[in-house]
Amino acid sequence: NSMVCCASWDRDGELFATAGTSKSICVYETSAVMTLGARVHCPAVEFEAHSKVSALCYNPYVKQSIASGDYQGVVQLWDVQKETSTWENTTHRRRVWSIDFSHIDPTKLASASDDGTVRIFSTTTKEGVCTLQNRANVCSVKFHPTSAHMLAIGSADHRIHVYDLRQPSTPLMTLQGHRKAVSYVHWVGDELVSASTDNTLKLWDIKRNDPRTACVRTYVGHTNEKNFVGLSTNADGYIACGSEDNIVHVYAKHASSPVAHYGFADKPTPMSHNRRDKGGFISSVVWSPNSKHLLAANSRGHLKILSL
Fold first, then answer.
1. What are the extents of the domains in the chain?
2. Are 97 and 140 in contact (CB under 8 A)?
3. Which end of the chain is more exposed for a tag (fewer CB within 10 A), N or C?
């Protein structure tokens, strides 16, 4: 029952990949899992990484390509069709927490690390294009959905930094308001959703020129004080996040309290009685490309596909 740290859908939602502390990247056929559920015992494809895997992202254009980042700082590309690793980079000195392809230029891959850097790679030349230096560990990176130059990072210094890659030396904007590390950032059009271990999500409008007035809304109702519990936004304006009480929470963009939730009914084991997480915590949530389904996983390796 290894923890699932990350998951990603392919561009059509026909396949999804999961990975975590088992060091394996498992690719499943969505239709088989939807039909057979727990009777699907084996993934369609399985890759063996060097270390525990902390980040995954399918290429939004090249259907068979997945990128991963691991606990040792290795960034890798995998070919699902050929069932092999096609490239790896060991520039990061510490764990890679987050990885993201640009939707506008899918040859651009960004990785965010505990070493305080965000590195942008070209999947064509297989070389580093640019490095962003942050003063604190970087927990999350996300390209803007309609700009190949703009990206946002979530930082352990409680801040969100928005960058234009054409001017990588300083952020375009820095957003402050969270009281603890920013573990995730996600774009919803020109707005940003951030998650923090201060038990909140926040919505930011980066078109407001004054960062002090950029926070539009704060979402409360889930529990998140120490773990990476997942964050995902969909085209319909729904925001999903995990919680340390093993419940998936869904917020509507315009409402500060959850509109839906789903509990993983894991029974505490004798081994987990003295642990704080008892039955586990939600560790990853990802909306499908068509926004109809939510893939959720928890710290005990359980996976569920949910419909809103």
1. 1-88, 91-180+199-220, 221-308
2. yes
3. N
- Amino acid identity, position 168: P
User: 280: which DSSP letter?
Assistant: -
Higher pLDDT among residues 304 and 274, named by residue: 304
Architecture of domain 91-180+199-220: 7 Propeller (2.130)
**Identical fold, 1-88 and 221-308:** yes
Q: How far apart are CA 205 and CA 263, in angstroms?
A: 31
63 in Cβ contact with 10 (< 8 Å): yes
Angle at 76 between CA 75 and CA 81, to 5 degrees: 160
- Fold type of domain 1-88: Thrombin, subunit H (2.40.10)
Tokens of 215: 């926070």
The domain 221-308: what is its CATH number? Answer: 2.40.10
pLDDT score at 265: 74
Counts for the chain of helices (H) and strands (E), in that order: 1, 27
Task: Give residue-wise pLDDT tens across range 116-141.
Answer: 999 999 999 988 999 999 989 999 99
Structure tokens at 246: 């093993």
Tell me: the pLDDT tens digits for 6-49?
999 999 999 999 999 999 999 999 999 999 877 777 899 999 99
Per-residue three-class SS string for 219-233: ECCCCCCCCCCCEEE
For 146-170, write each residue's pLDDT tens digit.
Answer: 999 999 999 999 999 999 999 999 9
